[in-house]
Every structure is written in structure tokens, then in C-alpha cells.
Write a structure and sequence with these properties.
Structural class of chain A: alpha+beta
Largest sheet of chain A: 4 strands, antiparallel
Radius of gyration of chain A: 16 Å
Low-confidence stretches of chain A: none
CATH topology of chain A: Alpha-Beta Plaits
Number of domains of chain A: 1
Largest interface: A-B, 22 and 24 residues
Number of helices of chain A: 3
Strand content of chain A: 25-35%
Strand content of chain B: under 5%
Radius of gyration of chain B: 24 Å
CATH architecture of chain A: 2-Layer Sandwich
Number of helices of chain B: 19
Mean pLDDT of chain A: 93
Distance between the termini of chain B: 61 Å
CATH superfamily of chain A: Dimeric alpha+beta barrel
Largest sheet of chain B: none
Structural class of chain B: mainly alpha
Shape of chain A: globular
Mean pLDDT of chain B: 89
Helix content of chain B: 55-70%
Shape of chain B: elongated
Low-confidence stretches of chain B: 88-95
CATH class of chain A: Alpha Beta
Order of helices and strands of chain B: HHHHHHHHHHHHHHHHHHH
Oligomer: heterodimer
Distance between the termini of chain A: 20 Å
Strand order of the largest sheet of chain A: 2-5-1-6
Number of strands of chain B: 0
Helix content of chain A: 25-40%
Chain lengths: 123, 403
């Protein structure tokens, strides 16, 4: 079963972390990625650039309109994700709980099951 | 020989060669890699240059050489290398027993079902890692890691290459059958049409189960599982529309069911029921045979289906079985009886919010004439499923009963 583990981050919370905390967070993700690769459960993980760089695209009367993003006004934004393939939902939750963000208030880890896939997977 | 014929031959021989190699040298992990390499070499050479006189001997020799190369390149294993290299090349011995041993090894209880499934397809099914990855829609590197981890676990468990002792054999066989069932199910539920290059896992599972049955012809559950697969596979053409929409059993064009598979499956189902004890696969095969026996949905012997589910519920209690029994009961005695049985599942945590419970209840409410409640339940069921085909089907049912 495939799941998308979404990392919702509050940039203000991230900024307020000490250097040690930031290093520990990065190291935690590094270890998590290695473990997932080894167990054969990782498909891909990606981190996104700052939400201040987002743009929102819409097309009205056939004309594209591009405005500064992000789309939703919020304290938290999608900061990155893990796409995994694992045994079941329980395992996905067990894995999500290993992500260091879960121990920091203001950072949210959300688990969503994938319903449709297409495209080359060996990227 | 055509490429397909060569592939079929390789799939048949791969587990026998691997079995022979492991029996001789131990180290399942290294042998498995060596056989995979030999099979890949044969897949390239044989269609072009012809199949050698003794294909198994050829594979055995090439795989042995690869294994020795592996050992030679590993300095820490110098000691063992000299012992291995000194041995004459293994004989071309019949290895059918080895295939069964191999299957027990790949379906080791310490592995998760997903790992055992992948390893079985590679080591016993003779599929390449790339093919298995395509079948499960994951990158090849992900699948390679999973298979490698599975082999390490088997090594760590200290398994030997032999059939499990009598005391644990029944339990271990149950794991093997479960893995074969999962492979079949994966193939059965895979979306049709779009993924033409995906290996047909349903057929692969049937092939492997036939192989097990050839070794254990008197095991009623093995026979029952094969019967269940054949009877289910017989409906494959009728269960989806050309556009990939699901067609429920009662609306399928039974003329498109595969009669040859039904006949074979029905015979096997009957044979398996003749034994002294009943197991879950035999009962599920009996249910599938009852459906196959009805020329139209209306002629289905629902009392017989219900009776089989009752026994199944007793020997293997599971809320999914109760759910299916409720469908049969509703057909036999009316929707209210089915709904009353469903109510007993409401407290079951395993079923809370499960789309199958919601969709069966919707179906029975529709039969009972409560369109508003049926609509509500179809909609909730559609939201709860993670299968796109099922979601489309449930949404179409909802539209049909919309008050």
C-alpha cells in the first residue's frame, strides 16, 4: 500500500529552533531516509522551497493569470513529503511516528493513502 | 524456441536449479543472486542461439560458476572457496522436491507478507526484480531493497534448506498458501487495461499453486486454494467493462465466464471437500463453485452459500466472513435478516468505517426499499475506499438510488 506522508511546517516554528535542534532535525530525517531505503519501503522523498516562493496559476477566459502564492493563507504549509510503499496503514503510522517533526509542536505529520498512480517510477 | 517459450521454461527451471544449488552450498542469499544472473544470461542467449540439450544442466553450471566467482571475490571467504571450487559441477538432478523446500523458505514466518510475496516471485516464480517492481508499481530499487532485506532475515533466522519438521509443517504450509493467495489477489485486483506490461500475477499464482499441488496432491487445502483461484480467474473477462468499470457478480454476463476453468475448478473443489477436515480455502472454493453452478444470478443456491459461510465463520472467525454471510442471508431470507446480522458488526473495531461494511449495508438498504439511507451509505462507502474502480462503482450505485 502506498502512502504519502505530508510534512506540514510552520516557518516561524522552524526559524525559532536552535542550531542544535535544526541539526538534530536534519540528522533525524537522514537516518529515517536511510532506514526506509534499506527496508525497501521508500519510493521518493522531496522537500519544497519556501512557501514565499510559491505562485498560484489560474486560467480565466483562456488567459492564464499568475499571482503570488501560497494558495491558502495559513500558518502551516506543505514543506515536503515521503512517498512510501508499506504493508498496511498501521505500518505507515508506525513509520510516520519516527519522523522527528512529530516531537515538535507546530510541525504536523499527516498520513494519506494513495489512490491512483501513474508515471515512470524509476526517476 | 520463441522468447515466450524460453521464458516459460526458465520460470519452471529457475526454482529447481536454485533448490539444487542451495542444497549443495547452503547460503541461500548468494545462490539466489547467482541463479538470477544465470537466468538473465539464458534469457538473452537461448532465443538467439538455441536452447542447450540440457537446459537445467546449463543453468546449474553457469549459476555454480557465478557463485564461485562471488566467493572468490570475497577475500574473507577464502577458506570456503577452495572447498567449493574443488567440488565437481553439480549433476543434473531432478529438483521438484527442492522447489517446495524453496517455497517454504521464501514464505518464512519471520517475513512480512509483502517481503515473502516479493521473494517468492523472484526465487520460486523466476521473475526479475524489475518485473516484480512493475507488478507492484514501485521503483526497482525499492523492490531490490525489499528482496535483499528478506534474504538477510532468512539468513538471520538460521533457516536450513529442508522441509519443516512435521510438527510445524501444517502451520508453515498455511503461510505458503497465504502468500500464494496474496499474489493471486494482487493480480486479481490490479487495475485492468492500462498496465499491459505488468506481469500477470493471477496466472503466476495459479502456476505456483499447481506446482505445490503436484507435490502435495492429497492436501485438501492446497487443492481448495487452486480451485478457488481457478473459479475466480474464470470470471476475469466478465468482471470489468472495457472501460475498466467493475461489474458485480449478479450483473456479470455469465456467457463470458471461462467454462474450462470452471469445470476444472469445480472438480477440484468437489475433490477437496471429500476429505475429513474442512479448511477456509476449501469452503471459499465451494462457495465459488456454487456461484459458478448457477446459469443466472437468480438461480444461485443462496442457502448453500450461506451454509458454507456459516461453517467458515465457525472455523475461521473474521468480520469479513460475517459480512459476506449477511449478503447470502439477505438473498436467502430477505434484506432485513441481512441487515440484522450486519448490526452485530457495528461494535467491531476492525470494521468501524470500513467501506465494505458501508457498501454492503447500502446494498441491503437498497433491497429493502430505503433509497435515502442507501444513497447515504453508498456515498460514505465511496469516500472510504482507496480503490478508484470501487469508488466509481459505488458512486454510480449512489446515483442510481438518489431519492
Amino acid at each position: 500500500m502506498k502512502f504519502l506522508i505530508c510534512m506540514h511546517v510552520n516557518p516561524a516554528v522552524l526559524d525559532a529552533l536552535t542550531d542544535e535542534e535544526k541539526t538534530a532535525l536534519g540528522a533525524g530525517h537522514g537516518a529515517f531516509i536511510e532506514a526506509l531505503k534499506e527496508s525497501g519501503e521508500l519510493i521518493v522523498t522531496q522537500a519544497l522551497a519556501d512557501p514565499s516562493q510559491a505562485v498560484v496559476v489560474s486560467v480565466r477566459n483562456g488567459q492564464p493569470a499568475v499571482t503570488d502564492g501560497p494558495f491558502l493563507e495559513s500558518k502551516e504549509y506543505l514543506g515536503g513529503f515521503y512517498l512510501i510503499d508499506c504493508e498496511d496503514k498501521e505500518r505507515a503510522i508506525e513509520l510516520a511516528a519516527q519522523i522527528p517533526d512529530t516531537a515538535i509542536a507546530g510541525l504536523g505529520i499527516e498520513v494519506r493513502q494513495v489512490m491512483f498512480s501513474d508515471g515512470p517510477l524509476d526517476t | 524456441m520463441t522468447t515466450t517459450a524460453v521464458e516459460d521454461l526458465l520460470r519452471e527451471l529457475a526454482p529447481q536449479v536454485l533448490g539444487g544449488l542451495v542444497r549443495r552450498h547452503g547460503q541461500f542469499e548468494g545462490c539466489e543472486d547467482a541463479v538470477q544472473e544465470a537466468v538473465l544470461a539464458a534469457a538473452v542467449q537461448w532465443p538467439a542461439e538455441g536452447v542447450p540439450d540440457s537446459p537445467r544442466g546449463w543453468l546449474m553450471t553457469v549459476a555454480s560458476r557465478r557463485l564461485i566467482d562471488q566467493l572468490r571475490s570475497d577475500h574473507a571467504r577464502r577458506e570456503r572457496e577452495s572447498a567449493t571450487a574443488a567440488e565437481p559441477p553439480p549433476d543434473d538432478v531432478p529438483g521438484t522436491d527442492d522447489t517446495l523446500v524453496l517455497l517454504f523458505l521464501c514464505c518464512h514466518p519471520t517475513l512480512t507478507p509483502a517481503s515473502a510475496t516479493a521473494l517468492t516471485l523472484r526465487a520460486v516464480g523466476g521473475l526479475t526484480t524489475a518485473e516484480i517492481a512493475r507488478a507492484f508499481l514501485v521503483p526497482e530499487a525499492t523492490m531490490a531493497a525489499r528482496i535483499s532485506r528478506a534474504k538477510q532475515r532468512i539468513k538471520a533466522a538460521g533457516s536450513t534448506f529442508s522441509l519443516p519438521a512435521d510438527a510445524e509443517r501444517a502451520e508453515r504450509l498455511r503461510v505458503v498458501l497465504h502468500v500464494l493467495y496474496l499474489i493471486f489477489n494482487e493480480g486479481y485486483t490490479a487495475s485492468s487495461g492500462r498496465d499491459l506490461d505488468r506481469p500477470d500475477l493471477a496466472r503466476e499464482a495459479i502456476r505456483l499453486t499447481r506446482m505445490v499441488r503436484a507435490q502435495l496432491p492429497d492436501d485438501a487445502e492446497v487443492t481448495g486454494l487452486l480451485a478457488l483461484m481457478l473459479l475466480t480467474h474464470a470470471r476475469r473477462e466478465a468482471r470489468t467493462t472495457p472501460a475498466g468499470e467493475l461489474v458485480p457478480l449478479d450483473e456479470q454476463d455469465r456467457g463470458r465466464w471461462d467454462r474450462a476453468l470452471i469445470d476444472e475448478g469445480t472438480e477440484l473443489a468437489k475433490a477437496s471437500l471429500a476429505g475429513p477436515a474442512l479448511g477456509p480455502y476449501q469452503l471459499q472454493a465451494a462457495i465459488a463453485a456454487t456461484h459458478a453452478d448457477a446459469a443466472t444470478a437468480e438461480e444461485t443456491n443462496w442457502r448453500q452459500v450461506h451454509a458454507a459461510y456459516l461453517i467458515l465463520e465457525r472455523i475461521a472467525p473474521n468480520p469479513m466472513v460475517t459480512l459476506n454471510r449477511a449478503v447470502a442471508l439477505a438473498e436467502a431470507e430477505g434484506p432485513q435478516a441481512g441487515l440484522a446480522l450486519l448490526a452485530t458488526l457495528d461494535g467491531d473495531e476492525r470494521m468501524a468505517g470500513h467501506h465494505r461494511l458501508l457498501s454492503v449495508r447500502a446494498h441491503l438498504l437498497e433491497k429493502a426499499g430505503d433509497a435515502a439511507a442507501a444513497y447515504e451509505h453508498y456515498r460514505r462507502a465511496a469516500k472510504s475506499t482507496a480503490s478508484l474502480a470501487e469508488q466509481r462503482y459505488l458512486e454510480s450505485r449512489a446515483r442510481r438510488v438518489r431519492p
